[in-house]
Amino acid sequence: MNTIQNIKKVALIFFIATGLLHFGSAIFIANDLYIKEASILNKIMDIPFIITGLIYGLASLRLTLTNPESKHKTLDIILISAIILILIGLIAINLFIPDL
């Protein structure tokens, strides 16, 4: 269970870092500052921001729903599958609908 707690802590750090970069670039775009660089950063940071949020949220859900003494391979497979499917969907949206 210690591994899941560590994943949650690291995901929170990355979520905060990517969120600050993503929202900071949006503020630069809104104020017409460094528009080219900010728009590139904004387009790049959306998927990592969402994925780190998902990993943090699903790790929290895993810690809340399960008993630390027993193994839960089925729940782990379901949660990892959800992250992978959402990642594939986000990549598909960014490729096929780039100006959304």
Strand content: under 5%
Could you tell me how far the N terminus lies from the C terminus, measured between alpha carbons in angstroms?
Answer: 39 Å
Q: How many distinct folded domains?
A: 1
Helix-strand makeup class: mainly alpha
Largest sheet: none
Radius of gyration, CA atoms, in whole angstroms: 16 Å
* Average residue pLDDT: 90
Instruction: Specify the helix fraction band.
Output: over 70%
Report on the architecture of this protein.
- The protein is mainly alpha-helical.
- The protein has one domain (2-96).
- 84% of the residues lie in helices and 0% in strands.
- The chain is built from three helices and no strands.
- It has helices spanning 2-30, 35-65, 73-96.
- The longest helix has 31 residues, at 35-65.
- The protein is elongated.
- The protein starts with a helix and ends with a helix.
